[in-house]
From TrEMBL:
Belongs to the glycosyl hydrolase 63 family. GO terms for molecular function: hydrolase activity. The keyword Hydrolase applies. It comes from the Bacteria. This is Glycoside hydrolase family 37. InterPro entries: 6-hairpin_glycosidase_sf, 6hp_glycosidase-like_sf, Glycoside_hydrolase_63, MGH1-like_GH. Pfam families: MGH1-like_GH. The keyword Hydrolase applies. Keywords: Glycosidase, Hydrolase. Residues 237-543 form the Mannosylglycerate hydrolase MGH1-like glycoside hydrolase domain. It comes from Lysinibacillus piscis. The lineage of its organism: Bacteria, Bacillati, Bacillota, Bacilli, Bacillales.
Length: 561
């Protein structure tokens, strides 16, 4: 694959290093994604010089190496690889690489040893060792009382390494560039063979999705106790609850330990109230927003594809954790006689959807449906684990919540929400979020389900799938985030529900539309429903995971047809 590093950063499995090009300025930056997307990520701006003069260069980027070569002389270049998770190697031939640090007040660089410089980056609590294995390295970093005024590093005709660490540098012998390049190529090929495969129609999308999922993983560090798949290394470099579930879903077939680790990130950081964090990174856990429970839904599917997940101890861990999140909604998100509520649009994951335009808190049918589905699955899990009394209690809870859903949030027109302390009926009904009760299609009367599906097809289906806001609505916005664009996780939930509850042809049609959409818009965070162009973050893992999962499922269906 010829990688466009404006859209997909160059990185590798396990590394916090990445390299990307700014879309507006076209500047190249070596970056680091420790600390999540609110921490500064830019380390060095990279340029090529000849005789001290900046030169125009082109980029040849593959999944495993990144080469910058002079337009006027292709034999003069600098190449980057990441052979080890915390090591970025640069080979320079016939040209000079200039690295200009994106430093702040207290950032400091000093000479550590001959041909070695240590760089302490204060806001990231991170240190780098810049080492010359061969060639020439010159550093201009004038001192000014509490930090360097600027840092300018030049590298010529040799092999150089940037290694990151938190506290103490441990000297080592670095592998030579050719051996390092061969190593990372083998690592990626193994991942690709296990995760993707070949397809005449969708090969371009497979190549993107396989690389994005592989390169977006970071190694255990700080609060992260296992390998974790970030949503992206472009802009949204955190692990969000909900998003992580879709990534775990596709990892489950061939990388079950890694899939389970994505769930464990949130199980291990679950608050004593039962709430999962909104997001986690190596330095920070945020409980600002609490997403609907999805773990049980995903874990049930994982059990279907790999016996690893049937292990009693793992099932017990997920079961107990899921019990706790349901208790959180019972105790802290439910007013007496009502259904659980959202305190912000971000709680739902549908941040700015039209359902949330009249105020808060919101009783929403999607949240009730997630909880009902969760209670039903917990009933099944409790039976497997021999918890017969708890199985009975979960069944009763699901029945009661379903009855309340149909009483409070459904009328002859379909589902709606309620807002505020008086739980007033919301008259805005144009968001796709109100159609998510298809998740409990197995409980709905045929008439209700038929009405839901007809509504989906007639009012939301577009050239590329279901828009998140009715295109005919006054709230619809082009590039409106949750006010129109298509999103991968919602598509997966709707496709799965339609295919599971008697509407297979429609589900297969929407699945096929989404697969085709990725050929137009790549693996973006979301997509224009009419034109298919990718929007916002263009290198997103849950989009990649959903694409690969839907493609895998469609292949299975074709084989059994």
């Amino acid at each position: 694959m010829n990688l466009d590093i404006r859209e997909i950063p160059f990185s590798r499995f396990g590394s916090y290093f990445c390299v990307s090009k700014e879309k507006d300025s076209e500047e190249i930056y070596i970056r680091d994604v420790h600390g999540g997307d609110e921490a500064p990520s830019k380390l060095f701006k990279l340029d090529l010089l000849l005789g001290g003069v900046e030169k125009e260069f082109d980029i040849l980027a593959t999944e495993t190496s990144l080469r910058f070569y002079l337009v006027e002389d292709l034999g003069k270049y600098a190449e980057i690889i990441i052979p080890e998770e915390d090591e970025l190697h640069i080979e320079v031939n016939g040209v000079e690489v200039r690295l200009q640090a994106s430093k702040v007040k207290y950032d400091t660089l000093h000479e550590y040893d001959d041909g070695m410089y240590e760089y302490h980056i204060y806001p990231k609590e991170l240190k780098l060792m810049l080492s010359r294995c061969s060639g020439e390295m010159a550093v201009d970093a004038p001192w000014n009382v509490i930090g360097n005024e600027f840092i300018d590093i030049r590298m010529k005709n040799g092999h150089f390494v940037i290694e990151s660490y938190r506290t103490v540098f441990k000297p080592k012998e670095y592998t030579n560039f050719a051996a390092g390049k061969e190593k990372v190529e083998k690592l990626y090929q193994e991942w690709f063979d296990n995760m993707a495969g070949k397809d005449e129609v969708y090969q371009a999308s497979i190549d993107r999705a396989a690389y994005i999922t592989w390169s977006s993983i970071v190694h255990p560090h700080g609060l992260l106790k296992n390998y974790a798949m970030y949503m992206s290394k472009l802009w949204m470099y955190n692990i969000w609850s909900w998003d992580n579930c879709f990534n775990a879903l596709h990892l489950g077939r061939n990388y079950p330990e890694l899939a389970y680790a994505q769930l464990k990130i949130f199980i291990d950081t679950q608050d004593e109230s039962g709430a999962y964090p909104d997001f986690v990174n190596d330095k920070f856990v945020s409980y600002n927003c609490i997403k609907p429970p999805l773990f049980a839904y995903v874990y049930e599917k994982l059990m279907e594809v790999n016996d690893y997940f049937k292990d009693v101890d793992r099932l017990r861990t997920v079961y107990e954790s899921t019990k706790n999140i349901t208790q959180y909604f019972d105790l802290y998100r439910t007013y007496e006689g009502r259904l659980p509520h959202y305190k912000h649009g971000n709680d739902s994951g549908w941040d700015n959807a039209s359902l949330f335009h009249q105020g808060l808190p919101i009783e929403a049918p999607d949240l009730a449906s997630f909880l009902i589905r969760t209670y039903d699955i917990l009933t099944k899990f409790a039976g497997i684990l021999g918890e017969e009394e708890e199985a009975k209690q979960f069944k009763e809870k699901a029945d009661a919540q379903f009855a309340l859903l149909m009483e409070r949030l459904h009328d002859e027109k379909g589902f709606f929400g309620r807002v505020g302390k008086d739980a007033e009926k919301i008259d805005i009904r144009s968001s796709l979020i109100l159609r998510l009760p298809v998740l409990i299609g197995y409980r709905l009367d045929t008439k209700v389900m038929d009405q839901l599906v007809t509504d989906l097809v007639e009012n939301f289906e577009t050239k590329y799938g279901f828009a998140t806001e009715m295109p005919s609505s006054s709230f619809y916005k082009e590039n409106g985030y949750w006010l129109g664009p298509i999103w991968a996780p919602v598509t997966y939930l709707l496709v799965d529900s339609l295919k599971s509850f008697g509407y297979s042809k429609i589900g297969e049609r929407i699945s096929e539309k989404f697969l085709k959409l990725t050929l137009v818009g790549g693996m973006a965070e979301n997509f224009d429903p009419h034109h298919g162009n990718g929007l916002v973050d263009t290198s997103f893992t849950w989009t990649s995971s959903v694409f690969l999962e839907l493609l895998e499922n469609s292949k299975g269906e074709r084989l059994h047809a």
